[in-house]
Amino acid sequence: MDGPAKIHSHSALTITTNFDDDIISEEHYDNELTLTGDELFRAVQKVTSENKDYAKEFNKEYNKLEKPTNPQKPKRLLPRPTCSNIKKGYDYVMKKATWPMAKRVIKAAVAYWFAYVIDLIVPVMKAIGSGTFLSIVMVCYFQPSRTFGSLCESAAWGIVAAFMATAWSLLGITISSTLREPDQMFDIRATIIHVFFLAIGTFTLSYDKIKWPPMRYGAINACIIMTFSLTQAYVHPDEKYHIIKSLLIPMLIGPACSLLVNILLWPEHATTNYIPYLHETLQSFIDLLDQETHFFLRDTYNRNTIAKLHRTVQDNLANLDMAKREAQHEVSFSKIGPEDILEITRLVKSMHMTLGGLALSGVIEEELMKDGEEGTVEIRINGDDADPHADQASFSVNEPLSPTSTIGTIGNEEDLTSLLNILRPICTELSEACQLCLADCITRVDHLQHNCREPWYYRLWPFKLKPRADHNKNVLDDPFGYLQEAIAKFNESREEALARLFDVNHTISPSPQRLFLLLILFENSLNEVAESLGFLVGIVKVLSTTRQSKRFWFPSIPILKRIRNFGEIDEDGWKIYEHKTREEEDEELGNEVFDPDVTPPSNSVQKLWYHLWLIRNWFDSKYAVFAFKNTLVVTCLCLPAFLPGSYEWFDIYRGQWAVVSAVLSFAPTTGGAVLQFLGRLLGVAMGAVMALIAWNITKGNVYGLAAVLFLFSLLLWFIYLNSKVWTVGGIIMLVNFPLVLANAYQASYDVGLPDDIYTIAAKRTTAVSIGITAAFVMNMIPWPHTGRVEVRHRLSRTISDIGVLYSMTVSSLIKENKESNNLITTKAFRKLVTRINRSIAIERLLLSRTVYEPPLRGNYPMEKYARMINIVEHMVNLVSGMEYTLHGLNGTEWREDLADALNPLKCHYITHILTAFHILSTALENRIPLPPYNIISSASTSNHGQFSLGYRISRRIKKTASEITMDDLETPAYACYCAYLIKTSHLTNELIKLVSVVKSLVGVNRYVKELVDF
Fold this sequence. Notes:
Blueprint: E1 6-8, E2 13-17, H1 37-47, H2 52-66, H3 83-96, H4 99-120, H5 122-128, H6 134-141, H7 148-179, H8 188-211, H9 216-235, H10 240-264, H11 270-295, H12 305-327, E3 332-334, H13 338-375, E4 376-381, E5 394-396, H14 413-449, H15 479-504, H16 513-546, E6 551-553, H17 559-563, E7 568-571, E8 574-577, H18 582-588, H19 604-619, H20 622-638, H21 647-652, H22 655-664, H23 670-698, H24 702-722, H25 727-747, H26 757-780, H27 787-814, H28 827-849, H29 862-885, H30 893-901, H31 909-926, H32 941-944, H33 949-960, H34 966-970, H35 972-1002, H36 1006-1013
Antiparallel strand pairs: 1-5, 2-4, 3-6, 7-8
Helix pairs in contact: 1-14, 4-6, 4-10, 4-24, 6-10, 6-25, 7-8, 7-9, 7-10, 8-9, 8-20, 9-10, 9-22, 11-12, 11-13, 11-14, 12-13, 13-16, 13-29, 14-15, 14-16, 15-16, 16-35, 20-22, 20-26, 22-26, 23-24, 23-25, 23-26, 24-25, 25-26, 27-28, 27-29, 27-31, 28-29, 29-35, 31-35
């Protein structure tokens, strides 16, 4: 455009709009869902004219915009600490200090203290050796605050890995002893054997740790045993069995302490872990329903409220799904079992799909308001200048109006006002009824958890609290009947109001048409929410009335399926789901893998070289490189233990802890490496300082040490369990604090090295710091794997997956077979949606860690990547919501009309959309500039005529929102049809925004652009 578009309308409002070049692509940003500020003002002002407070507030806000003032820059970059900041921190601590969290902290502290007390028993300490303090390390990693099944599984794999490492180390020590000369302490052949076994074992553990989640904690046990045994047995080969015994026994004591405390103190299982997540999920459903019905086209708009609530719902669902999977793996003693949990989760996910329509209506409205606020640079109230005789809005632009634009050209605003006055009160009543039923579900679910957490000795406690009178009281006596009455009342009130409306006029044509579609989408989604809630209310009521006693429930998933738990990584409290390779994803989706350089191997020789080529590619993979780096740093740090001039000080300074710390401090990305480097260095220093303070307070007294350690551990575990970022340093602090005290106490009884507390703290801190620093240096060089690049690659594959998901959705609409009608229930579709959502969660995590990566080559455009993640997340919800909407169109003429509109033989819409996904994915993956022309269909008839997306969809929008009869509004398929139209239109809107963001990142092909301009 040569100038801004000026809009003169019946209302006394004229808006002059300029758009930011970074948001708008090179084509005219023309979409059928883009509402002007004038249009929103006229539509909302009419329906809220009766609300004096709202009108006063609305006009007050616009009057503020008439005289904009330049905001002053803050004088201070960092805010001064004030009482409000202190109060905010206090409120955060009090929010976290709940009774469930207190139980987790107490359980962890008791097991931690119990393992330390075992080390304080002198006969046990002398019988086992100096390795008794390793039981404290095991408690830190095998935390008793988890569920019993999860803890048993981790402990079992830890013990298995410990025995495997013991056998591997004994094999290496035996071979080296056979090759070594009898009277020669240092032998080159023995050195090679020890280094070889240590390197191979480290490589295997490092690769398995990152690719196979059950072996994460087992790798820690195996690493400690291999490092200490292979280095100490090289100098003292005759004491190899004593060395192995002093290492292996504490590996068994630590998990035993955790399991014992887990059973005796508030035992938790799958149900006690699942129900709190279900409670939070249902509560987030209530919040979303309340906010959506309160703000949607009614009240002063609260920016970003709905989007934040929708993300909260998704996070809660992810936690719920994780708890559900744990419930399928363990034995529980409760009122509900794994099958019940599986069915409840299925119903909750189904309800979330219907709630997605409500969230979508709010997000679309939010986007429209946001675009209006960010693009509006001048707003004028024209008073008497407006034409009082104008019945329609007149538009003056420099270029012909697009066929997609239906602003003010068709329809009557009074019809939209009438529909709003009809639907708004009955939707509010139905929403309140749904919220009440959800609250009843929460109460009944909490009752299912009662008496599930009490330990066996609770019945012997004489001072039990008496239950309150309302302890087992529900919100509603018959929630299912109440909900059915609310739905029936909603339908009756709707029919009566529509009958009165259509008594005067046989047809209506609401305007603006996009607001009408939003209204129909909201009403249809709310009705679906109520219907899906009925199933959830029914099963919860049945369970709450029939399950009055507890019983044992055994997992239905076989043990072998639990072992094949690949792809999930829990990295210091951050759970990550790893992507499969591109070839694995293509094979899973049924795609053929092509190599442009060669044809597929046809004989045995070619197949041999092909497999060798695959092995070579595996060595270049990031996980193999990660394992090689671990092996290299371990080998380099252990070399002093096998040299004549350095083995003594290596043993004195406990150089083995440098090796163990290096293995534990490796991170897959640069941002994670920087975070772990800083956090672990701070943690080891704080742990040593706390140990010095505790020792000086108690003067080495055994009872004082036990008491002070328990008090300190309460604080340390509370910080560790409640802080996401501090987990990387908190675990080192929890380990270093008791180990310094344990070594000092052992030295006082001539066990271990005879050093004082300050020397022990300095040596241990030095050794651990060397290992952490070595791991950080090896992470940085050579070839650091930055999180910034990983975010870009993952976003590229996510965009490609969305293209696959969209092609599946559209094919289910176009294909005329019955099997395609239930695509959303198929396993492939659900797995793909789950994989995309997990990938987006990883991208958010990696993006948050990029702040720790130094901007060496330039500043990182974090805002653009954050915006891109929000766009792709919204697109996934749109595409899955489109497929869910098709269920209401099965077997109707409305589905045939949509299939006809999107038929590739008649419309290039699908081709352009899928091509856009492919080009954007390729451009991000390979940093290729985009072409200067538009990669998605323009809305102009001069370019594509009747084949353009905007033309065909706009025709259906006009047709759908014009000359509406009562039969249309009473037909459920009509509401689904309107919902599908608005979702399709908004998907195009989001894709245009995605193109603009990617174009700002990768640029435009300059030479082709010059040719096109020429």
